[in-house]
């Protein structure tokens, strides 16, 4: 979702977010640097019926109670009925002694300085510290006491709120690591990350009021401010520590702020699924494209937007791109460079993949970042300063300038055996900001249609689930879907990929402006192995014959294509005789090429999973036979040496995967004879000669680059 990555849990205990037998709730811990949108994410998660958000609990003992700060409901902490009941349930009341005790434990074992000790120490299955050194024994005892105190606190919050999941936005990775190592808390981690230049720009702001500190004066009444260099170093350290925290908990995921704002429904839904909270992931009715419905909560500390409720408009806050001085931007980029790149951001500070196009946010307010001076629409809590208002009403879609009536767009999604993933794909279609009509046909290949998917539809976004009872395979499923569509434009999407909200709008604009185009692709974000993400916007708005023969063109992925229906009349449907439908979209594009233009919107508009196994992908012998079929049916592939070598090398790699060294080397020799630097052929030789696992070889290419196709 997206841009989201995560690890599946090894245990299913508590996977549905229901308190266990001993009343211990699931705790969603938001970890990351400040000013990254944690308040927005926390409140969005807290709106789930099974969840309750409580803000930055770490501040309860060291700042909120001591300073008499306001709860998110607007009442001072000591007068808030919710927190009063929590205190009574957990500790028999908020006694000053208990508050000081827990604050002391936090300092002793939960500060950032303790991260190396928490990572290096040995722990048993129960979380008990196993180190024998005397100076560690006191540390272990304090760690256990902190975990026990927080377990009681979280259980009381869940009981008072009637929830099974507690959302804690404390952010500090050291504190989260201490809770995880205590063994007393069922901790599941969301690592929230934002471009460090945006974080540094936000932290540079001064005189930003803290509504929760109403009635106070001096520094306590304002949000803190920090210099760019110090912020960049802290951001870098926090991301590394968050990665370490994720390594020690069974359930974890990473969410980018930019994706959260651009695609909130898909991002939140996929995060919850990755964390094992499947029931919560299905109830996201409060999240819409461009807006989120937020009720008042009892969250503590954090962003001033905590006091905003109602229908909140979402807008990506990237004021730093224009307002941050060039020298400052370069400083932050240099200091954060290695981690910046590995966490999916451009060193040049170019357009962040997944962001809204400016046309989608005209007149809306920014929300979701730590204080940046932007404001959000909604209602302020009692006692809190009223937030500024922002333009509301009909959303700006950017399609109003198209001539005539907007065309109906039909979408075909083939699927088999992946109900959770196809639901995300359908939601990505339904959440398109295109102002025209859309219909989505989900084709279940050799399985019963799922009528529940049709409930995801809404006005102007009809969803139908149909079956493919004919020939099995992807080509036949696509053809079956076409029979159920009526739009003049047809879009294809695979069941494990997700569109960005602006995809169809931008592509229709281009189609209307250029009637000669038959097919239009788009840039993609490749979700590779683990945390590796590669953005591929493409480098050409028009694809020539030479380009298509030379390269498969990632930006013409099947999940990006918008196609005029006349293209199917001219070129025919997908070839159902192609062995196991391998490369069916590329084969079809080769047939379309003589009939009209093929273009690309050179902007990242779809998230493509590269590590997912597919029901529509068969063993290597099928791949080899399919590619030989492709060469026989399209002799024009031999016109370009690199393109011909690419297909020959793919055949060689397929045979190497099968262990047929002699055949693999023969095909590789043909490929290298055509193009000496053919990557598939070189990889085939490595696998055939060394015996390296082909899965390992492919994994390496995905970890260090964008893979090979």
Q: Biggest sheet, open or closed, and with what strands and sense?
A: 9 strands, mixed
What's the N-to-C terminus distance?
23 Å
Could you estimate the helical fraction of the residues in percent? Answer: 25-40%
Approximately how much beta-strand content do the residues carry?
5-15%
* Alpha-beta classification: alpha/beta
Helix and strand topology:
Layout (H helix, E strand, L loop, with lengths): L4 E3 L18 E6 L6 H9 L4 E3 L4 H10 L13 H11 L4 H14 L5 H6 L13 H28 L3 E7 L1 H10 L3 E8 L2 H8 L24 H20 L4 E5 H6 L1 H11 L3 H4 L9 E4 L13 E6 L6 H4 L2 H17 L36 E2 L28 E7 L3 H12 L7 E8 L15 E8 L5 H10 L5 E4 L5 E2 L3 H11 L3 E11 L5 E4 L8 H6 L11 E3 H7 L12 H9 L4 E13 L10 H14 L7 H17 L3 H14 L4 H12 L3 H11 L5
Parallel strand pairs: 2-4, 2-5, 3-4, 5-6, 10-11, 10-13, 11-12, 15-18
Antiparallel strand pairs: 1-6, 7-8, 8-9, 13-17, 14-18, 15-16, 15-17
Can you put this structure into words, describing what you see?
With 709 residues, the protein is an alpha/beta fold. The protein contains 25 helices and 18 strands. The strands form three sheets. Strands 10, 11, 12, 13, 14, 15, 16, 17 and 18 form a nine-stranded mixed beta sheet that branches. A six-stranded mixed beta sheet has the order 1-6-5-2-4-3, with helices on both faces. Helix 15 (419-430) links the parallel strand 10 (409-415) and strand 11 (438-445). The longest helix has 28 residues, at 134-161. It is globular. The two termini are 23 Å apart.
């Amino acid at each position: 979702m997206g841009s989201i990555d995560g690890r599946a849990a090894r245990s299913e205990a508590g996977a549905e977010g229901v308190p266990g037998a001993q009343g211990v709730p699931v705790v969603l811990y938001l970890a990351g640097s400040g000013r990254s949108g944690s308040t927005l994410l926390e409140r969005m998660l807290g709106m789930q019926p099974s969840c309750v958000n409580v803000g930055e609990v770490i501040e309860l003992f060291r700042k909120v109670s001591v300073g008499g700060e306001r709860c998110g409901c607007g009442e001072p902490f000591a007068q808030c009925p919710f927190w009063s009941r929590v205190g009574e349930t957990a500790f028999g009341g908020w006694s000053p002694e208990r508050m000081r005790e827990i604050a002391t434990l936090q300092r002793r074992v939960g500060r950032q300085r303790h991260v190396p000790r928490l990572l290096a120490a040995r722990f048993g299955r129960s979380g008990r510290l196993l180190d024998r050194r005397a100076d560690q024994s006191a540390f272990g005892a304090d760690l256990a006491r902190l975990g026990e105190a927080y377990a009681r606190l979280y259980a009381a919050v869940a009981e008072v709120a009637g929830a099974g999941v507690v959302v804690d936005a404390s952010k500090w990775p050291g504190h989260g690591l201490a809770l995880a190592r205590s063994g007393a808390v069922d901790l599941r981690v969301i690592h929230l990350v934002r471009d460090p230049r945006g974080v540094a720009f936000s932290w540079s702001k001064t005189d930003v009021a803290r509504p929760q500190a109403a009635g106070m004066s001096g520094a306590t009444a304002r949000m803190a401010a920090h210099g760019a260099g110090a912020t960049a170093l802290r951001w870098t350290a926090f991301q590394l520590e968050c990665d370490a925290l994720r390594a020690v908990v069974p359930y974890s995921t990473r969410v980018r702020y930019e994706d959260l704002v651009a695609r909130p429904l898909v991002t939140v839904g996929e995060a919850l699924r990755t964390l094992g909270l499947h029931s919560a992931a299905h109830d996201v009715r409060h999240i819409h494209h461009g807006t989120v419905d937020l009720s008042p909560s009892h969250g503590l500390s954090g962003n001033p937007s905590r006091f905003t409720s109602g229908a909140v408009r979402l807008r990506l806050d990237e004021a730093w791109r224009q307002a941050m001085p060039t020298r400052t931007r370069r400083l932050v980029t240099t200091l954060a460079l290695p981690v910046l790149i590995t966490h999916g951001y451009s060193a040049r500070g170019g357009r962040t993949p997944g962001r809204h196009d400016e046309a989608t946010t005209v007149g809306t307010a920014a929300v979701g970042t730590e204080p940046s001076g932007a404001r959000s629409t909604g209602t302020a809590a009692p006692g809190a300063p009223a937030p500024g208002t922002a333009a509301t009403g009909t959303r700006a879609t950017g399609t109003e300038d198209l001539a005539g009536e907007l065309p109906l767009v039909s979408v075909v999604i083939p699927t088999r055996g992946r109900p959770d993933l196809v639901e995300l794909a359908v939601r990505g279609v339904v959440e398109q900001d295109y102002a025209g009509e859309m219909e989505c046909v989900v084709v279940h290949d050799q399985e019963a249609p799922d009528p529940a998917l049709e409930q995801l539809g809404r006005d102007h976004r009809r969803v139908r689930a149909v079956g493919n009872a004919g020939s099995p395979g992807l080509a036949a499923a696509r053809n079956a879907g076409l029979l159920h569509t009526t739009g003049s434009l047809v879009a294809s999407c695979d069941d494990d990929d997700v569109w960005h909200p602006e995809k169809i709008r931008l592509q229709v604009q281009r189609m209307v402006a250029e009637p000669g185009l038959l097919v239009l692709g788009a840039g993609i974000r490749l979700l590779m192995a683990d945390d590796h993400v590669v953005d591929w916007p493409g480098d050409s708005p028009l694809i020539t014959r030479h380009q298509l023969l030379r390269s498969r063109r990632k930006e013409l992925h099947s999940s990006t294509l918008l196609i005029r229906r006349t293209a199917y009349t001219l070129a025919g449907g997908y070839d159902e005789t192609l062995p196991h439908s391998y490369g069916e979209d590329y084969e079809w594009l080769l047939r379309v090429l003589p009939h009209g233009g093929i273009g690309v919107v050179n902007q990242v508009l779809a998230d493509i999973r590269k590590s997912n196994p597919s029901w529509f992908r068969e063993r290597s012998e099928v791949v080899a036979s399919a590619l030989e079929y492709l060469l026989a049916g399209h002799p024009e592939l031999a016109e370009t040496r690199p393109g011909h070598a690419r297909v020959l090398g793919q055949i060689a790699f397929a045979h190497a995967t099968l262990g047929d060294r002699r055949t693999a080397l023969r095909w590789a020799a043909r490929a290298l004879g055509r193009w000496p630097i053919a990557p598939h052929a070189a990889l085939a030789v490595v696998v055939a000669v060394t015996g390296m696992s082909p899965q390992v070889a492919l994994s390496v290419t995905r970890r260090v680059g964008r893979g090979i196709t």
